[in-house]
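Lab notebook, bench 4. The sequencing result for the construct came back, and we need a structural model before the next group meeting so we can plan mutations. Quick request posted to the team channel:

Model the 3D structure of this chain.
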Amino acid sequence: MWAMIVKEFRELRRDRPTMAMLIALPIIMLIVFGYAANFSVHSIRTNVYGPSAEAVAKELRSPFTVEHVDPSGNRADAEQALVDNRVDLAIVTASSPPAHALVNGSQLFAAQAAVGALSRLGNTVTVEVLFNPDLKTSWVMVPALIGLTMAFIGTIVTSLGLVRERTAGTLEQLAVMPFRPSDVIVGKIAPYFAIAAADLVVVTILGALLFGVPFNGSPFLFALGAALFLFVVLGLGVLISTVSKSEGQAIQTAIFVLLPQFLLSGVLFPLSSMPVAIRVIGYALPLTWFLEIAQGILLRGESISGLWLSFVVLTVMAVVIFTAAVLRFRRDLAPGSRRGHRGAGA
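Done. Here's the predicted structure in token form:
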């Protein structure tokens, strides 16, 4: 028995990716849940409009953070600020009380905090929740589940499919065929792209039928954002396959990549409540930007003018990650590569 224990420890020591996962994962979980796991919203982004805007803005205290005061503004200006997700709360004032508060219901945690804080102001303000009137969790989670489904397929399933080529020995056969690395990658990921796209349609339709999630924006814009996000996560799957020697390593690495996206993208915890250092990591994740697109289009009916930054970031991520994937995959396909020599020698 002691010999078996020693043998397992030696194998673990040689398996550096597994050792890194066993050591790094608990540390990441500790940091994330210690610093990022916070449902409290301490700052509610607020704009104030109308004749009494300046007077009302001076009376607002924490957790309201007044970002813009416009005495000449009206309800249309307030609604546009909410549609563009520039604020969590827009207060429209009149010459006399009460003021009218419009709450951005697509930002669930901030909206719940805003409604609670406004209720303490009494009859000086009336409250109206837009985009998610009943503050249903399902309306916010369905766009997130769409992104998580595509991330799972793109990252784990794609990496396993390509690693399987290597373990089966067919990667060396591709090296002697007249294929460019980009041809091989596109050919391998095309089925996964189609499956993820089908899942996107199914989850979106079921979300509308089962939970009443609206689709207020452009289907074309939503499809474009989903396609960009898919290219990013599929590229991550290809990259993972190039650094993994077995299916087990591919799964471990994919989980290591997916876990921060699940925890730090705003799916579970509001980004605004995270420390700045953790929030920076969140904004470096593709799922964060896809959630901006999905929630903006489905719930708020947002246009490209309000979502252009998310589209630009995902486009840059797709180009960078796919370029890296092609370069690494080209090395794997090169007849003189180390893997090719090992395979021929075996």
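The domain at 44-130 is CATH 3.40.190 (D-Maltodextrin-Binding Protein; domain 2).
Will bring this to the meeting.
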